[in-house]
Design goal:
It contains 14 helices and 11 strands. It has helices at residues 12-17, 38-49, 65-69, 74-90, 126-137, 148-159, 163-173, 186-194, 201-222, 247-256, 268-272, 279-286, 318-332, 360-380; strands at 22-25, 54-59, 95-98, 110-114, 120-124, 225-228, 262-267, 290-295, 298-300, 306-308, 338-340. A hairpin with a 5-residue loop joins strand 9 and strand 10. Helix 4 runs parallel beside helix 9 (201-222), helix 5 (126-137) packs across helix 7 (163-173) and helix 12 runs parallel beside helix 13. It is globular, with a radius of gyration of 20 Å.
Length: 382
Amino acid sequence: MRWFGPNDAVSLWHIRQAGCSGVVTALHHIPVGEIWPIAEIKKRKNEIESAGMTWTVIESLPVHEDIKKHTGNYKLYIDNYKQSLLHVAQCGLKVVTYNFMPILDWMRTDIAYEMPDQSRALRFEKSAFVAFDLFLLKRPGAEEDYSKDEIEKAKARFAIMTEKEKETLYRNALLGLPGSEEKFTEEQILAALKSYAGIDAKKLKEHLFYFLQEIVPVAEQAGIKMAIHPDDPPYPILGLPRIVSTEKDAVELLNAAPSVANGLCFCTGSYGVRPDNDLPGMVKRLGDHIHFLHLRSTRRDNDGNFFEADHLDGDVNMYEVIKEIVLLMKKRGISIPMRPDHGHQMLDDLEKKSYPGYSAIGRLRGLAELRGVEWAVAQSMR
């Protein structure tokens, strides 16, 4: 499971009790762009090992915005990133997860969407998001990104919102900002968006490929596997390009820096939001480059809405995905690290405050279901 460090409401012992042999985590207290000190890496590693588990997968080692934009001190930040890779390698870590999403790491409009069984899930509602962009954030030129029908639906949705609902929507939409516990002003957010003016998908890909060509040789030499997380959601938002959303995107970035060290964090939830992504086929075709797995499922509709479904429900054919993963691991002779993702808030956790999508019991349920499917598939292949 993912652990957010000593301040996480879910303790290491609770994670171990869920049946986990290890956790994925990061040094969240180190500012983005700074070098991860060996002493801090070892301290975190010792904390985890003292609870009887291991730490071999980092999630995430963030990429500074200057690197994505090729502005400011981006070369210094790339050098710092290389040094951090050398440090984590010295401490015995094996996989580094990262993403190349501009500004926002993820986007949801509702972090307490009530399911039929009264558990709560994360949800993205297209009309609410468009309303946020047009009428709350008031991003200049936002109207150009939406159809007339989408704008009319957003107006109707916004008209029936209470002031409290508007405030909640605004807060939820910005939770994907690094340091989102802070209170960001509209001016700060709009300035951040404006800083990407002139950077389209083609230009952002050029910056990603440059970054990969710089760091992958260092990672390979150090014995580190890089695993890029796909966009969440996997399409442009707030006028920002998204460039790791499809199988074609994945192939292009792998070809930009061919190496065993250049690989993927295969997230079935993020890729699964797009109906044109063939997830079992992607595992089969990209499997040699998959270094880390996020297994979750989403349920989408034709209006651009989606929510986090139960791990074995939704639009992801989890059986077929896991079957391909088991075949892949057998072929490669390895065990690919996997974690459940974005569990529902349920049972006792309904009364607790935790990171959105990362309460304990919902993830425990997902982990148990996924392990059961994996075990059954593996037994059938003996």
